[in-house]
Design a protein that fits this description.
Keywords: Membrane, Transmembrane, Transmembrane helix. This protein is mainly alpha-helical and 429 residues long. The chain is built from 19 helices and four strands.
Length: 429
């Protein structure tokens, strides 16, 4: 009896089904959000500072032109973000990620170092400036040792990106993993130390993007460390699969199995990274001549999370926009009387009294919002007020503040349960 010829397997039968098939790749929501964040970061890092400088230059001559340019620049920035996003989705993240790495590891630290040097070194501040003073977040010269440590970890990151295969000798591979871990520890400390300014980097990227540098570096280092540990895990599995097995049937490798990190390599890196941090501390101590030199870059500052120096508030004369406006020509600003603020005599006109009465109403009825409004004003407008000296500049400020004065008075009429005029009259008495 002749054997039967094998019949063709029916579609979907177990005989035809492959042993291992990779699931189809479809763009996930997480992937789309990551690409959108990548495009936004590139525009914020490279385009926004140039646009801010251009607007600042134009605003010195024409405020209206500066506002128009800011609006056009905002629309243009949104368009560039959309264009970059589509380009990344079409061509991949490779080129864009390279520009992000240069921005995060080189440009933002240099930019932040310049900000750090320009900030207020002394912890003494005038009473009216305590909400707007920008203190130095990292002590100098200790910060230069921290910058050198960042350069070492950034070099390890570049080596890991350029050489994804295991480095020889094994000590070089271990050094890369330990350096990435140490860099993550340092930048996590920086992010905690900056505190609220990290949120400022999210809200106002053209001005405060360097405050996000530790968080962005932490993400880059963490992603690269995870990727490299997975590669070492794949290498270890390949070696194990290459060993001869005494089995009846060898099953093909399952290509869609989730990748796992190589735990022995991670444990060795966790053991070595404290030694790298300790070596940095020793070098800082030798250089500065103080045993706590590595910590003083954080502690020898004021008004930050890890700061140890107190802020010393001293009395002094300060000026605000309406106070500046009241110093204009009398035929325009119409001064009413002399008042006192903080023991210092000031000129009081109706605009100044109305503005202060509105603030007094906010503190009385909505104290939290009043404090927030005061901090925001002190941060944004307060630093420029002392530079407005000539009388004709005060006249311009007075005219610009007129719509605000009318809005403040309308709010007093609608919201003040008592007489608005009585509240206005008692200001600065």
């Amino acid at each position: 009896m002749e054997p039967e010829e094998p019949t063709a397997a029916q579609p979907g039968s177990p005989e035809e089904a492959p042993l291992a098939t990779a699931p189809p790749e479809t763009p996930s929501t997480h992937s789309r959000l990551a690409d959108a964040g990548l495009a936004t970061l590139l525009v914020a890092g490279y385009v926004s500072p140039l646009l801010a400088l251009l607007i600042g230059f134009v605003s010195s001559g024409s405020t209206g032109l500066a506002l128009s340019l800011a609006l056009v620049g905002l629309v243009g920035a949104v368009w560039v973000v959309v264009w970059l996003y589509r380009n990344i989705r079409r061509r991949g993240r490779g080129p864009a990620l390279g520009w992000v790495e240069v921005l995060v590891l080189v440009i933002l630290p240099a930019w932040g170092l310049a900000y750090n040097h320009m900030a207020k070194e002394s912890c003494q501040v005038l009473e009216c400036e305590q909400n707007s003073a920008l203190f130095r977040p990292l002590a100098e010269p200790e910060v230069f040792g921290l910058l050198a440590f960042h350069a070492v970890t950034a070099l390890a990151y570049v080596a890991s990106r350029r050489r994804p295969q295991a480095l020889q000798p094994a000590l070089a591979e271990l050094s890369v993993h330990a350096s990435l871990l140490s860099g993550m520890v340092i930048h996590a400390l920086l992010a905690v130390h900056f505190g609220k300014w990290v949120l400022a980097g999210v809200a106002f990227p053209p001005a405060f993007l360097p405050c996000l540098s530790p968080v962005l570096t932490l993400i880059l280092y963490g992603a690269e460390l995870r990727h490299r540990l997975r590669l070492r895990g794949a290498d270890a599995r390949s070696v194990a699969q290459a060993q001869p097995l005494a089995v009846y049937r060898e099953v093909p490798a399952q290509s869609f199995l989730p990748q796992r990190i190589h735990r022995p390599t991670l444990l060795r890196a966790l053991a070595v990274s404290p030694a790298l941090l300790g070596l940095h501390a020793v070098l800082q101590a030798v250089w500065l001549g103080q045993s706590s030199g590595a910590l003083q870059v954080f502690t020898r500052t004021c008004d930050y999370t890890l700061s140890r120096l107190p802020v010393e508030v001293i009395p002094g004369s300060c000026h605000y926009l309406c106070t500046v406006a009241a110093r204009g020509h009398s035929w325009l600003v119409r001064p009413l009387r002399m008042g006192r603020r903080g023991g210092v005599p000031i000129v009081v006109n109706r605009q100044l009294a109305v503005a202060n009465a509105f603030e007094d109403l906010l503190h009385e009825r909505w104290p939290r919002f009043g404090r927030l409004a005061r901090r925001t004003y002190d941060l944004l407008a307060r630093p420029i007020c002392n530079h407005l000296r000539p009388a004709w500049v005060s006249d311009i400020v007075y005219l610009v503040m007129k719509p605000a004065e009318w809005a403040f008075y309308l709010a007093l009429v609608l919201l003040d349960p008592r007489s608005p005029e009585a509240r206005i009259d008692r200001m600065y008495r």
